[in-house]
Amino acid sequence: MSDRDGRPSPDALLKQAAREGGRGRLKIFLGAAPGVGKTYEMLTAAQARRRDGMDVVVGVVETHGRAETQALTEGWNKSRGG
Question: Is 40 exposed, middle or buried (0-12, 13-18, 19+ CB in 10 A)?
């Protein structure tokens, strides 16, 4: 089942997810102030999961000019959307 532009329908995606089993997880990184390491910690955790063979997707990263944070983004696939 797909719509006119070739994408799967929401119902088809839900059925596929049900067949695959398991549940996704959402982890939220909170900090009381800017610069306390939320982005750095998130990227460190994401890199560890990638090394363990998990599929990890990063949408947007604001490094705020921090070289250490920028280094953690190296090797990720860049956006194909331009």
Answer: middle
Tokens 């947007």 — which residue?
60
Residue tagged 């532009």 (tokens): 5
Q: Evaluate whether 30 touches 38 at the Cβ level (below 8 Å).
A: yes
CB 72 within 8 A of CB 40: yes
Q: What is the 3-state secondary structure (H, E, C) of 37-54?
A: CHHHHHHHHHHHHHHCCC
pLDDT digits over 18-62, tens only?
888 777 777 888 888 888 999 999 999 999 998 998 888 888 888
